[in-house]
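Data availability (excerpt). The following record was deposited with the supplementary files.
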Amino acid sequence: MTTSRQPSLGPDPELAVAFALHRNPGAHALLLGAGVSTPSGILSAWGIQQDLIKQIMHIKSVPAADPLSWFEQTYGTPSTYDDLLAQLAPTKGDRQALLRTYFEPKEDDVENGLKIPTVAHHAIARLVASGRLRIILTTNFDRLVETALREAGIEPTVVAQPSDITGLAPLHAISCLVVHLHGDYLTTAGMLNTSLELNTYVEAVDGLLDHVLPNYGLLIAGWSGRWDPALRQAIDRNPTRHYGTYWIDSNELVTPGRELLQRRDAIYLQEDADHFFARLADATDALADTDVRDPLTVTIAVATAKRELSGRHTAIPLHDDIQTEFARLHETESIREINVNAADPQGEHKLRLSAIEAALQVPMALVATAAYWGNEQSDEYWIGEISLLAVRPRLSGVTSLINLSRFPACALQYTGCLAAIAAGRFDLFKRLIDEPVTENDRGDVVPVIAELTPQRTLNLVSRQSQSTFADSNHHLFQLIRPLAVDALGLAYERFREAWEMLEYLKWVEITYSILQKSADMTPLTDLAGQIQAIEQRLAEGKSDYPDQARDQIAKLREAQRNQRQKAAAAVPRDDIYVRYVSREFGYETPVARPLQYQVQRQGNEAVLMRAGICGGSAASFLETANIIDARLNEHGESLAYNALPPGGGAVPMGPFWPNDPQAVER
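Predicted structure:
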């Protein structure tokens, strides 16, 4: 799809239209041209012209040839639709009878899906049913839009000829108005076909357009603007006062349509009507499922939660607030959606993610507040919800859409973990790592933190990084960041440190759990203990045979290296989304050394150990951290060297994030 004057919402112009219709229901009029109906098998004026010439050729027993070329050679002038129609059917009654065969479906037409409403017509009916569109202007003679509306249970007010405008109720009082600007095939008096007829409108039609066009936004679809001078003039003399104009057509616009587009300052989308309106209807439905919450709602929710957690009286208990918000979140259609098949999975993914993130605003703010300022009692209000949101859907379809429905569990768990770390509540962090569980693809019960990673649930990738890992994690990082700043009052540097500690400690815990199950942890800690004991005796001068002791240490270190390699092979190769910086022993993350130093100095009395990290064992933590550090170095080197430009250059030293190794962030 190509666009002109692309809207500010980015690479998805349909979203700009969806937001415009959703935020201003009934404020836009729709103008439909022949391009909306041609997919139904109803011929455009060009198609009817060719068909009529073919019939003339058949009558004259002319061999098959290009109809337009034959007509010009035979009659000495190029054929035009309006002139040909005027010659074959001189009166309006004749033209009506002639055109009827082109618009009314026969039995075999219906069986073949011809001359019946298209995907676009049905999507338009959905937009009308939801109140987002009320006025439909059309240059088409067919009644496909009326048929689609009636099939959706909507009885439109129809203007089929100028006399129908007299006595028309005020526009704001009409739930659905369809105006056939050029008449329809069943209304002889209103049909406009020839260039002379299309050059001007009667006063009643001009008056109606002069009321609609300046006061409503305009969606133009399937109309080239080429053959209708009176309509072009009406649009030109009535610039919209309040709302935008969007022009949808599958073909490049040509003069005079292109010039009208520029004068109207319209946004042009080159796309077929079926695809556009189907996506538009889905997008507006997604927005309705979960309205983007007013920022004030988030602010009030956070302020109320803080008052209760500080012991002050609140009108609505925090427990009730949290339950209400989670109930609303569970009802979000993009989360409970059972249809996980889509003609455009990538586009559908973007629409659903937008709706989910809107629904998450208040729940994430409440979880952040409760995790930061709360206690064991308030923790019970929300921790269990993570497992409920992580339930694996029993569906088949587009994998990215199935996984996306579980993203709220990932987002809320990360939010709670980050807030807990920022507040120094490592006991809560440990609970969040251990307690929320879900099923993996094999049906095994596993921790949510390990199964529902940002990469798996979001599956985002940009052209810059080409990495679903980096872009998915970066997206979640940016989603949580405003909450940390606004709800928790964290400076960016403190938020960044909490994020990196979350990522590092998360993988320490996941790795420790794997090593425990594989029985690789005990040999590691035993070896570390033996080495430490011998080194201590040497340092204290208590070894009777120092050289033998040093040889023994060397052998133990070799065994330790082998055991670490064996243990590392059992750990997932997932990357860690932290900043990477080059130090004397390779790449590492800035938070690793301070954490390890604290544990080395305080042993099992360190705050992490008292919270139960790595089973409360300082030795297990340090051994697990060693494996994580090796993985960090490997990943950091890979990122740094892959970032080198062709021909070489300086290797990035950092600190840098995985999604942009060339950008240093101190």
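Summary of structural features: The radius of gyration is 34 Å.
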